[in-house]
């Protein structure tokens, strides 16, 4: 297991130091002393990484040693954390910074496939101009380049943007390094709903309570969080505007109000209410109001999610004994059963392309994350348990974030949909549970 | 005057409840018909110069819902794994509360349902709710109107016992009866 701290001290970024990066990647454990005051709330470890990794060399940007914030360590950490890249130590002398400096033979001889170089220049107004270029070493061609002006407080975001571009150019898939995650942190009797960067940095507490908080879900545009709170000594569904800071109780009906999930247009939520009988599924405006009932059974119907086209709801119900997954058209119609294996299948979450459903399966007492391919009915169990729950897809559909309890300690896990890459995300500050992966971030003007 | 009425009422209620308890072949710890005195009064010694005023027990309004000698102070019904049926030993508790509610028509209760950690969070919310609902239905059959009872679930989020063994889990599979104002 390799542990990658996400802060590396500026002063130690020599070429030799980079060589050791590769050594520890494969086996040993190196602790970096951080001089950066910000620290990660969540520590991310890659625990399994099978399959081909793209060898990439990331050269410290010219001027980085003198800039107030690091860039290339963040990019390195992002790409390494994805499990799809193998870092090649950037030990050439001198380090290339502009295209004319690059000697491709230096890199192809080290089995490198991609090379990133760059430059950080301080501007008169105190901001920095960051330019970068990504090369295909074998073809000796440029794959990407960019120039970004950023203030010091935007360096992390800039590193994530560059990471996303590298990732996309080399894997063909959109990167999620610039996204956010939400989760509930429990410390003793205190619950905190936090939103952090996808690498665990900059956690912001959006709600703190002595009563449980659960089920956070980002709105499709990422500006709001719906969640369940027990502040009023029973479950309520609240929508909180992350930009404005305002909150609204959307559902406080008699009985339970829980399992919120957004419609693709962000206007409505599906929720589970027990106000009329046992738990049933309703749709309500995200502003609150009168809900309309979608299911009509005398059994437990709950945990619904919209398909990306907004036309169907997938939920779980125990109408046939143990809980199973079902679908029903939003406008009403026949309920169709989706799972026939196992006796306990709950909490469906739908991939962004609508093809895959992640859910929680219990077998022989173990809770594990599994996927159901809607077109074929094929089920894949992706995790080992024993207490894996609350799955959430990354916006590129590649990774499922979930909660994982082991030995009474709650942490998060992440698994790629093909099962090859697994990560563990832990907090030193308490138990972490019920994660939600935010959508792609719209770039603000730079 | 007030004290006498309270003492009379307390005695009458305890008599009724004692009757309830003795009706069933309860495996439940027996609730004997006893004096409902809850406050321990230290009888001042007859000797000694200063006379400390005695606070008679009857001055304190005895709340049967909180009286440890009264079955009504028993508020927790436990359940088997993945089950929502009320076992025999707990039915006496449900009956006692139903009786109290039929005699105190202004009171309302919340039935707070819980589950142990061994299921998914969302299904545990539903399981807790089902358990609360089982108590509600039983009480409804005993004459308590539905609008006087609200069932809410906490799923697995408010355990009484931490730990991952049956000793802890069995403590957490429960419904708690909470009266208005508590």
Folded structure, characterized:
The complex is a heterodimer of chains A (446) and B (182). Chain A has 446 residues and is mainly beta. Helices cover 10% and strands 43% of the residues of chain A. In chain A, strands 1-2-30-29-28-27 form a 6-stranded antiparallel sheet. Chain A has a 5-stranded mixed sheet with strand order 4-3-5-6-7. Chain B has 182 residues and is of the alpha+beta class. Chain B folds into 2 domains: 1-67, no CATH class; 74-182, 60s Ribosomal Protein L30, Chain: A. Chain B has 4 helices and 4 strands; from the N terminus they run αβαβαβαβ. Residues 9-49 of chain B have low confidence and may be disordered. The chains are: A mainly beta (446), B alpha+beta (182). The A-B interface holds A 212, 214-215, 230, 233-235, 254-256, 258-259, 272, 274, 278-279, 300, 302-303, 316, 318, 323, 344, 346-347, 360, 362, 365, 367, 387, 389-390, 405, 408, 434 and B 110, 117-123, 125-126, 129-130, 133, 150-155, 157-158, 162-164.
Structural domains of chain B: how many: 2
- Report, as a whole number of angstroms, the end-to-end distance of chain A: 38 Å
Give unreliable regions of chain B as ranges. 9-49
Q: What is the total tally of β strands of chain B?
A: 4
Number of helices of chain B: 4
Name of the CATH superfamily of the largest domain in chain A: TolB, C-terminal domain
- What is the CA-CA span between the terminal residues of chain B? 28 Å
* Major beta-sheet overview of chain B: 4 strands, mixed
């Amino acid at each position: 297991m390799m542990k990658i701290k996400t802060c590396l001290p500026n002063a130690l970024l020599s070429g030799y130091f980079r060589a050791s990066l590769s050594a520890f990647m494969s086996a040993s454990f190196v602790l970096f002393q951080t001089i950066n005051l910000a620290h990660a709330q969540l520590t991310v470890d890659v625990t399994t990484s099978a399959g081909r990794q793209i060898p990439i060399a990331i050269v410290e940007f010219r001027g980085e040693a003198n800039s107030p914030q690091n860039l290339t360590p963040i990019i390195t950490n992002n790409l390494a954390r994805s499990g799809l890249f193998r870092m090649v130590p950037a030990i050439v002398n001198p380090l290339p910074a502009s295209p004319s400096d690059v000697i491709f033979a230096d890199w192809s001889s080290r089995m490198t496939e991609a090379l990133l170089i760059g430059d950080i220049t301080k501007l008169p107004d105190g901001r920095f101009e960051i330019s970068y270029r990504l090369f295909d070493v074998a073809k000796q061609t440029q794959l990407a380049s960019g120039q970004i002006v950023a203030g010091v407080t935007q360096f992390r975001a800039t590193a994530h943007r560059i990471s996303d571009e590298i990732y996309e150019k080399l894997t063909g898939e959109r990167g999620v390094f610039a996204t956010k995650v939400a989760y509930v942190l429990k410390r003793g009797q205190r619950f905190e709903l936090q939103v952090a960067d996808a690498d665990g940095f900059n956690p912001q507490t959006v709600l703190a309570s002595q009563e449980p908080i659960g089920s956070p879900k980002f709105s499709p545009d990422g500006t709001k969080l719906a969640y369940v709170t027990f502040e009023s000594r029973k479950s309520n569904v609240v929508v909180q505007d992350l930009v404005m800071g305002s909150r609204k109780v959307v559902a406080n009906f008699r009985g339970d109000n829980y399992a919120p999930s957004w419609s693709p247009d962000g206007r409505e939520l599906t929720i589970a209410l027990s106000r009329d009988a046992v738990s049933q599924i309703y749709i309500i405006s995200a502003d609150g109001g009168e809900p309309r009932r979608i299911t009509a059974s005398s059994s437990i119907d709950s945990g619904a999610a919209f398909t990306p086209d907004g036309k169907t709801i997938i939920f779980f119900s125990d109408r046939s004994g143990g809980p199973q997954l079902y679908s029903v058209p939003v406008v009403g119609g026949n309920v169709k059963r989706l799972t026939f294996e196992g006796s306990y299948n709950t909490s469906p979450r739908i991939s962004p392309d609508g093809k895959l459903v992640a859910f929680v399966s219990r077998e022989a007492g173990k809770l594990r994350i599994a996927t159901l391919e809607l077109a074929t009915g094929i089920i894949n169990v992706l995790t080992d348990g024993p207490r894996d729950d609350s799955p959430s897809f990354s916006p590129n559909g590649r990774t499922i974030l979930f909660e994982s309890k082991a030995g009474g300690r709650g942490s998060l896990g992440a698994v790629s949909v093909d099962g090859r890459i697994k990560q563990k995300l832990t907090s030193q500050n308490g138990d972490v549970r019920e994660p939600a992966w935010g959508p792609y971030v719209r770039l603000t003007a730079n | 005057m007030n004290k006498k009425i309270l003492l009379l009422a307390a005695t009458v209620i305890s008599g009724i409840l004692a009757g309830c308890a003795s009706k069933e072949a309860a495996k439940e710890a027996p609730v004997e018909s006893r004096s409902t005195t809850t406050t321990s009064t230290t009888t001042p010694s007859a000797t000694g110069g200063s006379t400390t005023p005695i606070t008679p027990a009857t001055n304190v309004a005895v709340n049967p819902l909180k009286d440890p000698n009264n079955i009504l102070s028993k508020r927790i019904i436990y359940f088997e794994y993945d089950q929502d049926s009320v076992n025999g030993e707990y039915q006496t508790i449900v009956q006692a509360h139903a009786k109290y509610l039929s005699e105190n028509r202004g009171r309302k209760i919340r039935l707070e349902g819980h589950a142990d950690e061994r299921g998914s969070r969302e299904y545990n919310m539903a399981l807790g709710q089902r358990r609360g609902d089982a108590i509600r239905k039983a009480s409804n059959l005993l004459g308590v109107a539905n609008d006087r009872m609200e069932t809410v679930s906490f799923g697995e989020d408010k355990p009484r016992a931490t730990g991952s063994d049956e000793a802890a889990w069995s403590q957490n599979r429960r419904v708690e009866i909470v009266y208005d104002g508590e």
